[in-house]
Every structure is written in structure tokens, then in C-alpha cells.
Amino acid sequence: MTISNQFKNLRIEFHILQSFPVTCLNRDDVGAPKTAIVGGVQRARVSSQAWKRPVRMAMHEFGAKLGMRTKHVASTIAKACADLGATEEKANGAGEIIASYLSKDTLLFFTMSEAKAFAEYAHEKDFDTNNMKDKDVHKVAKKALNPAVDGIDIALFGRMVAQAADLNVEAATSFSHAISTHKVSNEVEFFTALDDLATEPGSAHMGSLEFNSATYYRYVSLDLGQLCQTLAGQNLPDAVENFTKALFVAVPTARQATQSGASPWEFAKVLVRKGQRLQVPFETAIKAKDGGFIQPSIEAMTNYLTKQEKLHGSLFGKQEEYTYGQDDSFNIDDLIAALKQHATGCTIEGRFDE
């Protein structure tokens, strides 16, 4: 049987410019702000992972029920088994064997619905680990997973289950590493700390921290067709709203207490389109103009997207374009309302066999 998914290959693409003052949003292994060489010069960089987790956590604050990414799979399943009456020994045994069929000392992305389903399966087997088979556990997981209920982040960010490839979920989102649109050199802050109870003058501790400041370009693509498929046609507009709100407010958490980075979006182009994904490379570093980098970055980004639209012709597939930050007549609530309209009517008929 084939499927009916009117959103197939339809994407919402976020092209975001966001400026931060003195910050260290994402640290490398020696505690310095991450960087990358782009166009032959050093740029500030924030990895996609550093922004994905804050987005996930913000989604929870906006009411989404999230999955769990954890190594504590066995203990989570064991607790669910204990809730069904298993003794501590049998609950722990069931949790350990079922967890071994799913992951081996790696983070697993799963939901409480799955954990409860595993416990019910163990209960049917009288919590006897000799009667628990890996293929049965995989079938239970596949049947129990419902991202629209308690794992919307699994649908958005995907998951890989090394022990059971059929439990993999294709991510509906693609995040680029955020890069500065311009050349950046990290700087060093020297600091001292005083002892409140000191009897002699002078500092009790000296140290240094690296930081930078930058205007970042962020690219995020949301595949509505993939999301509709994974959610089995359920609650797509709500998912788009929750994700967009989280994307708007989320900021990486590194050193927020000492180098606060609480800057909002400065400017964004949001495209609803079909066709291959398209991000702006900013291969040529922007030069400061009109007091900073944001205005020339806006010009470079919009000019690039306009040129690519012309070059792609009919393959660009644009259905709508929205501009945030140009003036205050179109705010984030307006953007969210507009994007939800593009996500209405998601239905799945039959099944996907691709």
C-alpha cells in the first residue's frame, strides 16, 4: 500500500541572524569558544548540538511532552516493572535484559510509553528473563512509539538505535553549525577573586577565560513531510508552533552566569518551499558597516537568497516567504500563526514503504 502525504518534500527554512556581545556560547576541549575557518578566515562557531538541546528543553517549557535521551535505560524500565508488581530482583533483571536489546552503554532516545510497554511485556513473561527475546522487544518498541503523544523531540531530531535499525527515526529537522558572518578572533579575560575572610591584601585567585563577540548566521530546516509521516498525521500545526517558539527563545547555556548571552533574533528570512535544502555559506567574510555587522549581513543574506531563487528557477519551489525583524508590524506571533497555516490538514493514508 502507498501513502498520501500532501507535505512530502515541503520544508520550512529558517535563515536567522543573531548578534551576541561578550560570550562563550559553545566551548571546545580547553574551554575556549569554538571556531572554524570559513572563506580562509577564522569565524566564531556554535555547534548544532549546542543549540539543539536548549531548543528541546524550551519545547518542554512550552508544553511539549518530550522523550528521554539517557544511559539509564535499564533503571527506567525496572521502575516501570516494579510499578506492575515485580520484585526488585526481577524488575532489575528485566530492565537489564531489555536494555541490552536496545543499547550497550550508549544514550538511548526513548519515551515513557515505550518504557511502560516494555514493563507490560515483561509482566506477560512473568518477569522471566529467559523468555524475553530481542525481536519481541523491538516489536513492542515499534508499536508503542507515538511521538505525537510523548516524544515530539524524537520526531524532530530523530534517533538511532544501534541494536535495532528498524527502530530508527528519521529527523525532521536539519541544523547547521552557527557561524559568524565575519572574521572573529577570540580574546582573553584576565580576572581575580578576593577572599572575604582574608587577613592580608591581594587576590586569592587569578585566572583567565576566552570569549568573543559575533553576529551569527543560523540555518534550520524543518521537513513538514517527514514530520507529518513520523507523527502519523497528528498535531502537525501544534508541533510547528512549539518548535518555532523554542527556536526563537533557546540560547546555548555555556557561561550564561558570567558572560550572559540573552540576545534575540535580529533578523530572519523564513521560506516555505519545496526543492533541495539551501543555506547561505557566507564564504566571503562581512566587513563592518553602519556601526556593526548586522546590516551588511542582512544585505548579504537577502541578496544571496534572491540570487539563488532566480538561478534555481522552478526548482526553487517557493510557496511563501516571511521576513522577521524588518519592522515591528510583523512579530514572532504573526510568524508562528502563518507557519501553522502551512501545516494544517496533515493526514496519512495507508503506510510508508519507502
Topology:
Elements: E1 3-4, E2 10-23, E3 35-38, E4 41-46, H1 48-61, E5 68-70, H2 73-83, H3 88-100, E6 108-110, H4 112-124, H5 134-144, H6 147-150, H7 152-157, E7 173-175, E8 178-180, E9 187-193, E10 205-223, H8 224-230, H9 236-249, E11 267-274, H10 294-312, E12 318-324, H11 332-342, E13 349-350
Helix pairs in contact: 1-9, 2-3, 2-4, 4-5, 9-11
Written overview of the protein:
With 354 residues, the protein is an alpha+beta fold. The chain has helices at residues 48-61, 73-83, 88-100, 112-124, 134-144, 147-150, 152-157, 224-230, 236-249, 294-312, 332-342, and strands at residues 3-4, 10-23, 35-38, 41-46, 68-70, 108-110, 173-175, 178-180, 187-193, 205-223, 267-274, 318-324, 349-350. It is built from eleven helices and 13 strands. Strands 2, 3, 4, 7, 8, 9, 10, 11 and 12 form a nine-stranded antiparallel sheet that branches. A two-stranded antiparallel ribbon has the order 1-13. It is flat, with a radius of gyration of 24 Å. It folds into two domains: 3-66 and 171-194 and 204-350, no CATH class; 69-150, no CATH class.
Summarize this entry quickly.
This protein has 354 residues and is of the alpha+beta class. The protein has helices at residues 48-61, 73-83, 88-100, 112-124, 134-144, 147-150, 152-157, 224-230, 236-249, 294-312, 332-342, and strands spanning 3-4, 10-23, 35-38, 41-46, 68-70, 108-110, 173-175, 178-180, 187-193, 205-223, 267-274, 318-324, 349-350.
